[in-house]
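Writing this down once: the sequence line spells out the residues, with the fold written below as integer tokens. This is how one looks:
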Amino acid sequence: MGMIEQLVEGARAGVARRSAEAPLEQLRADLGDRGDGRPFSEALTRPGLSLIAEFKRRSPSAGEIRPGATVDQIVAAYESGGAAALSVLTDEPHFGGGLADLRAAREACELPILQKDFVVDPYQLYEAALSGADAALLIVAALDDERLSELHAAADELDLDVIVEVHSEPELERALAVDAAVIGINNRNLDDFTVDVARTRELITDVPAGATVVAESGISERSTLEQLEEIGVDAVLIGEALMRAEDPEAKVRELTADEESTREHLLP
């Protein structure tokens, strides 16, 4: 079983366990208590390259990233440093996260928040909405076309913005087939965890005008952000480089230097 299959199986098992404790009907009833959302997609298209700063406890490839890190301290540093939005990794089996981290982030800052997880069931979108997420991640490699379309529509009904993540041309075609407004290009191969930032350069030229592009993984230096901005990337999602930084706030400031943005998907 490949890594993506393991991650999907873990997500399904988690949904089965939690839905037995709190049925979907209960989550639907609780949605009336949800507060106002924050404009996630709008934060990605503000002038300059937008930074989505991620809280991430561990990963299958890197292990524990920042022992003892607390959500409130890290996200407050991200916000003070100038991040445009947050990402909170909530997968528990492989990344050590949870919905409690998402709720804590909501309380600790005013930034819009992406729940980053392996979403395979509408149940998870209800959990995200109730826990304070403004957006959700849908990974094309983890979903067939029918489920991708179903989840994309369900997120829209819950007023959740969506990043549809791809890492190949066939996956990009599938994302565009559901009219994805925000395309995440993951530079990491989810099977062997190798990273190549050139993947963004290769795929962005096939993204239609008007769509927002987010580059993910393998980004840690301002020079890389400048190169991505030149080819029309709207935002970058950075986790490990920020979590490992001695001073996360200073690292965010270093990466978010003001620059003019082309906002066009150009050939290099």
Q: What stands out?
A: The chain has twelve helices and ten strands. Confidence is low (pLDDT under 50) at residues 258-264. The chain has one domain: 3-19+38-255.
